[in-house]
Amino acid sequence: MSAPVYVVLGAGPGLGLAVARRFAQEGYVAVLATRTKADAEPLAAALQEEGHAAQGVGVDLTDAADVSAVVTAVGERNGRIDVLHFNPSAWREKDPLHLTVPELLEDVALGAGALLPAVQAARPYLASGARVLVTGSAAADKPSPAAASLGVQKAAVRNLVSSLDATLAPDGIRAVAVQINGVLGRDGAFSPPPIADAMWAAVSRPDDAWTPHVPYDG
């Protein structure tokens, strides 16, 4: 059998890379998707230099057709997708009195809506035991009024995870949102490595212990 495959959409040099590294350490091929392939290749190279199998791809998460095409290509190239990790969010510094409806919808389309074409494209490559992982945030419950759209994105994607989990569960595929209840930092409990450990633990649970939402409180 080929090695399991982990795909992260919205990868970056912080949390996205750390979670990819955590899965790579467990023997997964790590596929890191960023806005452009040029941005993704150094992240993949960092893992390759550590002896891990890694690939870098570009994807426009605001374009559902591109999301579908890129995820499908990853599935075709590797023959499987075992963990699909949805990591993006849009930060817009606008309070509710200045945020427009088009801006809100644009942000929600990126931070929540893009999960739909990603999972739909991945579905043919998700076998029983596969997982959909979503990076959640305390903003879902305690939104900052200074960036009002972020809380809406995180509440929406958490809700969507519940629906995905219920829909996929009969086929042995589960979905989970790990809600990070703190501010990301370089050191300490809210730095990328311990959060990556928590995400690995969340997807490693057996079905009889499954919940679609896991809080990470440090």
TrEMBL record:
Signal peptide: none annotated. InterPro entries: NAD(P)-bd_dom_sf, SDR_fam. Keywords: Oxidoreductase. Belongs to the short-chain dehydrogenases/reductases (SDR) family. PANTHER family: 5-KETO-D-GLUCONATE 5-REDUCTASE, ALCOHOL DEHYDROGENASE, PUTATIVE (AFU_ORTHOLOGUE AFUA_3G03445)-RELATED. This is SDR family NAD(P)-dependent oxidoreductase.
